[in-house]
Amino acid sequence: MDPIEYAKAFYLQHYTMLDMWHITPGVRVVLGRGGSQKCRFCLRLAPEVTFRLKAHAIPEALGNKGMLSRYECDECNKHFGSTIENDLGNWTLPMRTLLRISGKNGVPTLKNERDGWRIECDDGSELKVSHNRIDSVFEVDEAQKLIRFNLKRGPYVPLAVRKALVKIGLTLLPETEVPNFEETIKWVRDPQHSNERMVRMPVLRTLRPGPMNGQMITAALLRRSEPSIALPYAFLILSIANEAYQVMLPSPQLDPPLDATPTQMPVFPVGLGQNRDSIYSALNLSDSERVVDEVMSAVMSYDARIPK
Ligand SMILES: [Zn+2]
Fold this sequence. Notes:
Elements: H1 3-14, E1 15-23, E2 29-31, E3 67-69, H2 74-82, H3 84-98, E4 110-112, E5 117-121, E6 127-131, E7 138-141, E8 146-152, H4 158-172, H5 182-189, E9 203-207, E10 217-224, E11 234-240, E12 243-248, E13 279-283, E14 295-301
Helix pairs in contact: 3-4, 4-5
């Protein structure tokens, strides 16, 4: 059977899509009903905690400006912003520039003054690469019009990046599902990073080649539709421009027991029908040791123009 058809049939049989969001620039969506406010992450109520700051359901650095939640208090907002969301921001830094994802301060510019190179997004939203000399940051294949970037991520803790992705899923959960994730919420909020019980499988990444809008974000939640099968209970599918991540949202009470033999499962087919050239990879994101100076490689086609 064709692998994509198989994946579609697999998810149709075993999972239900709880909800799906297409985040459109300029459109404001606020999750959570009116009335009294309770923080989903520290469980405290107003007025013990305040809810004045904008709580982005998906970090603003990833390009989300309009999707907010009413149930993240200011203290948790600051806590996540200065911890795991920083790790996620550093980890995604080169990708955000290359895919032209505009955060709080626009598309991040990558540069190294000493080596004389700069990658930035101009006003017309085109990527501009300038350099004094070719060095290890670029490798250019003039015949194929391809450029390989070897760019450093910012320092990050892999497990913290995973927590930041799981936190997005926890934020999007409907209220009725929250009791199934109490332990997971505590784990995500815990500044100590340990992974026992909460890391059961890698984060699955799908890269779809080709030009894509850097402002396009889609998020979906999947929930297992049958109780008695040895499959994870829930997933977040987060797709940003060309990248998509399938993140298990651990629920120790509903996931298969730790000693159960895991059932093989295909990667969720993102962007139905257009994913024949997709490149899949499994990201561990399970260590609690800080990673510094990791180089990420990406190949892009280019349109050479000599500046006048
Ligand atoms: Zn809170």
